[in-house]
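Hey, I was hoping to borrow your eyes for a little while. No rush at all, and the record is pasted right below:
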Amino acid sequence: MAEIKPIKAWRYNAELQKEIESLTSPLFDVVSAKQREALYKNPLNSIHLSVPKGGEESADMAAERLRKWKKEGIIKQDPLPGIYVYYQYFTLPGSTREHVRKGFITFIKAYDWDEKVILRHENTIPKSVNDRIELLDKTQLNVSATHGLYSDPEFELETYMDESMEMPLGELEDYQGVREVVSVIHDAKIIKKFIEKITPQQIILADGHHRYEGSLLYRKKMMEQNPNHTGQEGYNFHMMYLTNSDSDDLRILPTHRLIKDIPDLSEKEILKKLEEDFIIKTLENPEDVHEIILGKKWAFGMLFKENTYKIRLKPEKISELKWNFPDEVKHLDLTVLHYFFIEKILGIKGKEQRSSESIQFERNFTACIRKLLKDEVQCALITKEISMEQVNKVCNTGYTMPQKSTYFYPKTICGFLFGSIQEDEFELPSYFRV
């Protein structure tokens, strides 16, 4: 049972809504250092709440800034609870088709992983989770929604969302070139239809594993401290953007691997080691990699500064993968890459890979080329996108994928609205019944 609730959102005041584009920010895990410094220059930008500047005292600074913004009316709480509809219009490289990812932002209970209501496909890094817990504890605010997937093959909820979009609250073009539009549904009868659709479902967590786990661990902490715990307190809930996994406009892009600072890494030595497990083909043009590996199982591009190769695991070698995973995980392209190349060729053991500074992640293919030419990295491993079917299968096993396996595009942004879990701001009014 996936329990959701409408939100009495905090939003920038009416005057500031006119400049909302300058107040939004990328999510904390994708904002670059350069972007961050530029955004910090605007004292009202949402980044001051999502990625506060200030070292060990950053969470306290964010809490103080939040109190000031509330007091001065920079942000105001909407008087009525609602489901906030959120559409993202985008195109993909090489295509003129405009996609629109349709979804809505709501509160959802922060279920433990063992309850199998929220299903994950990635592991988390403890330090990042701890940072999120501290920020949540001090501010009592969900600054950005995580991204979850529900199933609605009949597209029943889209009718109500499309109606709501006829009167948008705000619209902008974000840093990705994506057109972002938000509206709200206040009608309790319609909100009930959303609740009824989501209640019996399992939700796949697409993006925001660290923020979600921060909410989950904070909930556990508060439950232990509250002898009168009911399950309906604000700390039980987490703000999530829910989209339909049955939609054709749900896009998962690949994330490439960049290798750096490996002592004595020789292209010649790597090619020699690869011969045991891989079929190797030299390519003339690195730009051809995507098309050449597309649709081919366990195939990757391998780029060096001067040369480009297609490498593909010999099918009979899959049985030699020693990691103790079910086949749904073992047979993933990225599992093969992380085992047969990163562990076996580079010598970085599986358990060390999440914390290894020798592995970087890059979604942009051109950026991979640029970093190779500037000698910032030694080698680039070009991967393919994963399918929603594969994500579903892995989630149902209870295991997780290699880190950075999915890049659900586009990323959501921070700043359109905030969700408070502070009791006097979270509680729904007595007249609101669903």
